[in-house]
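Researcher: I'd like a candidate sequence for this fold, 179 residues long. If you have to choose between options at a position, lean toward the conservative one.
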């Protein structure tokens, strides 16, 4: 299994380098907390667990970490794959390199979405600032969300895989509607 672990680390590093995130196999074994290294390490342990049937304890021993860390990484790496474009593309490239079929319950995001920011000028105009630095006036009016809509969006963003039952019950009790 150690040889398979090395193949996975190589495939993850190559896929990340093709996405312009320069992480080496030595970096994955360090305790660095940078997002790229954490994602690479999490993806490697996830592949060992999901595709090769290794338990969280066995993976943890191989990677010199606690088994609870491996359990946490499983959900966090899936969330990143489904939310961040380069993470989704990296996962698909790793699967392709290793000859694995992407898991059907993971829906990778492959497009990097530009970040736009809204701000008001001194005159009260609403402008949008785009990533390339340009600004323009917002056409129409931004939607004013009701408290129920804001709560619903906040809950669904916080729990993308499924909302815990107690949160659902609190929401339904407060707003007298289903989530």
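Model: Candidate sequence:
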């Amino acid at each position: 299994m150690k040889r398979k672990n090395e193949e996975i680390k190589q495939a993850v590093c190559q896929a990340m380098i093709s996405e312009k995130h320069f992480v080496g196999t030595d970096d994955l074994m360090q305790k660095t907390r940078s997002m790229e290294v954490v994602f690479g390490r999490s993806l490697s342990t996830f592949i060992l667990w999901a595709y090769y049937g290794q338990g969280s304890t066995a993976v943890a021993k191989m990677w010199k970490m606690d088994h609870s860390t491996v359990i946490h990484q499983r959900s966090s790496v899936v969330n990143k794959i489904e939310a961040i474009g380069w993470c989704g593309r990296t996962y698909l490239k790793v699967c392709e390199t290793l000859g694995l079929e992407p898991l059907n319950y993971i829906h990778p995001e492959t497009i990097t979405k530009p970040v736009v920011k809204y701000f008001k000028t001194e005159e009260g105009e609403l402008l949008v600032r785009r990533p390339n630095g340009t600004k323009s006036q917002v056409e129409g009016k931004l939607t004013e969300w009701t408290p129920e809509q804001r709560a619903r969006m906040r809950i669904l963003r916080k729990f993308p895989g499924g909302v815990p039952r107690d949160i659902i019950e609190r929401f339904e009790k407060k707003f007298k509607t289903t989530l």
